[in-house]
Specification:
The complex is a heterodimer of chains A (266) and B (287). Chain A has 14 helices and one strand; from the N terminus they run H-H-H-H-E-H-H-H-H-H-H-H-H-H-H. Chain A has 266 residues and is mainly alpha-helical. Chain A has two domains: 46 residues, no CATH class; 205 residues, Orthogonal Bundle (MetI-like fold), CATH 1.10.3720. The longest helix of chain A is centred in the N-terminal third of the chain and has 34 residues. Chain A is globular, with a radius of gyration of 22 Å. In chain B, a hairpin with a 5-residue loop joins strand 2 and strand 3. Classes of the chains: A mainly alpha (266), B mainly alpha (287). At the A-B interface, helix 1, helix 4, strand 1, helix 5 and helix 6 of A face strand 1, helix 1, helix 3, helix 4 and helix 5 of B. Strand 1 of chain A pairs parallel with strand 1 of chain B.
Chain lengths: 266, 287
């Protein structure tokens, strides 16, 4: 029994890893090897593709742009989601259930629906092609998710803690920042992970709301294909580089990962 | 938990409300506004009422895309939910392999969506990809840019690769939350493995499974970047799903009003189905 289980898991993990291995394999080969000869491992190992990405300006800028709006989005989302999640987990107020569902509907809205109005709204306000534009647009999905996750974690903290703190003479802001936030640290870590993840992987809005100055890495990748024919080696290398932030973030939250995916609700 | 009635809590929710309203309500109203007008240029526009909606609903291309979208979403759920449960049951429960397998399993979720397309493009191409070359060399005709069946197979395989892990992680956390006492009781009763799964594990997974179904349904229904990069919606329009159809209409052809009417219909479909799921979730957590 244990044997079969291990086998199934190993097969599944192999299925996940083989395409990634193939990507890495391609990124380490020169283009003429990729197209010329089929081989399971790089015949002529080269880091040329990576070197070119770091020296040609568009690529490095692309990474920086992506990271900038992802971080902005994460900071904004968590800051506003914390008090809101506290309100949902502790209080009853007029329209609370409707408000919660309305927030969730934004997570459900297909990004394609908002393409055009976002484009025009941000042009009118004058923030088109800036990092903050993409960050705000991504807030539409990340804030509801952050509220949902944090609410799940906060509901797990007994209410007696709040009451004891008030009796001890803590004011609400002091209690919230110095007692409550440390208690749900792992929940915040998980919420950060999700905000980061959804903003990092999204393409459609990031692509529509930027043109030159804030162009994200994913767009640099798609553009480079059409401009010069397909440069497979470089495309693969860029792909490998986009995996790194994700892998790092997973590593940091690995202990809370499973609970986080259940939105704190297990 | 019994909550206190306090309407001052609105002040805590206010920042979220303002931010999300700016990004959601204004654009949504813009969409509604466009959808009931015929806009020729910035100054010439006519009120046309529900005409666009009628036209959209009769559009045969759109009906085809909608049909494909439903087939895709249901195949995704039919494959990923059982597979996800099975893999979650196979995950190790203690030791250092827990962290290792969690990190490995979660990795595809963190890959940018267009890079997922790129990975599978490189992996499945008939001339340079491992999968494509292998299939062709054992005698199976496989070219996802030519045959619609191959394109569908590739897009589905890609989505299974990309998202099954979400179901695995959800179910895994659900399984971890079952107290050991349940299993001990089952052992005393001499329950079979299947009985343990059917009467202990599955019911306790109900909560996380609804979340999994909800998230997987929503995201597969909005899928855009991955097939866009992999197949470009082709061959023909065999893998053109709703989001791509809409994006082409809105940004490609700049057909504002039709796109707006379509957006609203699209949104309403997702909203209706998600509301059903949401009601089920809140019911089940109340019990």
């Amino acid at each position: 029994m244990e044997r079969t289980k291990q086998l199934v898991l190993i097969v599944y993990i192999l299925f996940l890893m083989i395409p990634i291995y193939w990507l890495i394999n391609m990124s380490l080969q020169p283009n003429r090897d990729i197209l010329g000869s089929f081989s399971l491992y790089p015949q002529n190992l080269t880091f040329d593709n990576y070197r070119r990405i770091f020296t040609e300006s568009g690529w490095a800028r692309g990474y920086l742009n992506s990271l900038t709006y992802v971080v902005m989005n994460t900071v904004i989302s968590i800051t506003v989601a914390l008090p809101a999640a506290y309100a949902f987990s502790r209080y009853k107020f007029i329209g609370d259930k409707h408000l919660f569902f309305w927030l969730l509907t934004n997570r459900m809205a297909p990004p394609a629906v908002f393409l055009l109005p976002f484009f025009q709204l941000y042009q009118t306000v004058g923030i088109f092609d800036t990092h903050i534009a993409v960050a705000l647009a991504h807030c539409l999905f990340s804030i509801p998710l952050a509220v949902w996750i944090l609410e799940g974690f906060m509901s797990g903290v007994p209410k007696e803690i709040d009451e004891t703190a008030y009796i001890d003479g803590y004011s609400f802001p002091r209690f919230f920042i110095f007692i409550f936030i440390p208690l749900i640290r792992s929940g915040i870590g998980v919420a950060v992970f999700f905000c980061f993840m959804f903003s990092w992987v999204e393409l459609l809005l990031a692509r529509t709301l930027t043109s030159v100055d804030a162009r994200p890495i994913s767009v640099v990748m798609t553009r480079s294909i059409s401009a010069t024919g397909v440069d497979w080696g470089m495309l693969a290398a860029a792909g490998v580089l986009t995996l790194i932030p994700g892998a790092l973030v997973i590593y940091f939250v690995r202990n809370n990962l499973a609970r986080g995916f259940a939105l704190g609700r297990v | 938990m019994n909550k206190v009635e306090n309407n001052k809590a609105w002040f805590l929710v206010l920042p979220v409300l303002v931010l999300v309203a700016f990004s959601a309500v204004i654009p949504l109203m813009t969409v509604v506004n466009y959808s009931i007008q015929d806009i020729l240029d910035a100054n010439t526009r006519f009120f046309v009422g529900d005409e666009w909606f009628r036209e959209i609903l009769r559009d045969s291309q759109l009906q085809a895309a909608l049909g494909r979208q439903f087939i895709f979403s249901f195949s995704v759920l039919a494959i990923q939910i059982p597979l996800g449960i099975a893999i979650a049951l196979c995950m190790p429960t203690r030791g250092i392999w827990v962290a290792v397998s969690l990190v490995l399993v979660a990795l595809p979720l963190l890959v940018p969506w267009n890079v997922v397309g790129t990975i599978w493009q490189l992996f499945a191409r008939g001339d340079i990809g491992l999968l494509g070359v292998t299939l062709n060399s054992i005698g199976i005709e496989y070219n996802y840019t030519r045959s619609a069946a191959a394109a569908w197979f590739t897009v589905l395989a890609m989505d299974v690769w990309h998202w099954t892990s979400l179901v695995v992680l959800l179910c895994y956390s659900g399984l971890r939350a079952i107290p050991d006492a349940y299993y001990q009781a089952a052992r005393i009763d001499g329950a079979s493995r299947f009985a343990i799964f059917r009467y202990i594990q599955l019911p306790r997974l109900a909560g996380v499974l609804t979340i999994a179904v909800l998230l997987r349904f929503m995201d597969s229904f909005m899928i855009y970047a991955e097939p866009f990069v992999l197949t470009g919606g082709g061959p023909g329009s065999s893998t053109t799903f709703l989001s791509q159809f809409l994006a082409t209409m809105a940004i490609g052809q700049f057909d504002v009003s039709r796109a707006a009417a379509f957006s609203l219909i699209y949104f309403l479909i997702i909203l209706a189905i998600s509301w059903v799921f949401y009601t089920i979730i809140t019911r089940s957590t109340k019990d």
